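Hey, can you fold this?
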Amino acid sequence: MDLSVNNLAGEIPKEIGSLVGQLSLNFSMNLLTRNIPDNIGNKELMESLDLSMNRLNGEIPP
């Protein structure tokens, strides 16, 4: 799922972690803030996750 360069602002919803069947998530070059949801890294089949060029805080979940 590519949502890069969409002027998305605010917090990443925790529901993103429950998406099924997404091998790749791209949220780069937006205005996302706050912490990265803990459950975003829980995907066993996740091949790539791009959160670059946002204003996120905190640690990257395992």
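Oh, and this one too while you're at it.
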Amino acid sequence: LIIHITDGAANCGLNVLDALEYCQKNRIELITIGCGCNLQTRQFLLERYPRGTVYLMDDIRNLPEGLENLFRDRLLKR
């Protein structure tokens, strides 16, 4: 499981689509958390990432609670 936390700004590293393809090929579960993203970035994340793998929050200060909810949801699904 990889948890990708992003503000949506391209900094450096792998292209998003390359990273998605790598995870899919290697059966790595990828969850993306968008923190403080603008509307355009939110739409991009929701369109590019598989349904149910993107969580959006308005502020990074909500991250601890968001991670707790995410882990609880994932554990209960198993």
